[in-house]
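ingest -> validate -> predict -> emit
validate: passed (alphabet ok, no gaps, 319 aa)
predict: started
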Amino acid sequence: MKFKKAVLGVAAVATAMLLAACGDKTIATINGGQKITESEYYSSLKATASGKQVLSTMIINNALDAQFGKKVSAKDVNAEFNTYKKQYGSQFSQQLAASGLTAASLKENIRTQKLLNFAMQSYSPVTKSQLDKQFKAYQPKVTVRYILLKNNDDGKKQAGQVVSDLNNAKGDKEAEFIKLAKKFSTDPSTANNGGLYTPFDNTDTNTDPAFKAAAFKLKKGEYTTEPVFSKQFGYFVIYMKSDNNKPEKITPAIKKTLEKQITTANLNDQTKVSAVIKKVIKKADPQIKDNDLKNVLQAYLQPNSAAAQQQAPANPAGN
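emit:
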């Protein structure tokens, strides 16, 4: 896993280039004589694509902060930062370096993403039809155990035998499942703990689709009576450890969950992010005084701009 850079957030260092480059202060000399001044540097930098991108980034960041900054506190940013730090443990610094980030730039990415989250909620609010559609796909977070067998005829046969052993077992089915997982599962990451898997819901993208579909059909204490085939992994036998009670209607709590799921999906859709950024810019009504930089926001303001979609930010960290 690596941290992903939020494009609107990682230009912090480069931002200083344009902020400072406004005078004739000497910033470098050659052989103690020939000078490179701030104004020369600025003129050279602004002619480059990266220089223009820095300015557009600054404008968008400032616009986001002006419109939604009061909703994002340092406490919120630090809380998410600490979550990542805890998640990666001793590998945290290594992951930052591998992603070309520092602790400070990761925090800036997190803040930018939170600002974008509020911008998405404001400029692209969730509709009732979206809620209804999301509710159909919604599944509460569940915890399962599984046994993985090889992706061949022997694996399929063995999976069938595991199901048969469960059917014939007397007493506690979960206890029997744990024994079978330790004995037969080919997945070393879960076999020793009885096949216990990390809780997941309908938004999980790391779990095999066939596995998810089969698991969501089970009630607490049930297991798949037919082996579940995954072309990528092999044959699964799945046991539902937790409650799996999807509500019949959208409650206030479920509505909040659905809205969060929809907004998160929208933030991963570069077209929708670009559309929101366009609205943020228009509301900010930026006035660019340098004629050479008049068009730095054009990519964001053009309809369905491919350039804007490429520059739209990603999540600060990904799985």
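The two ends are 6 Å apart (CA to CA).
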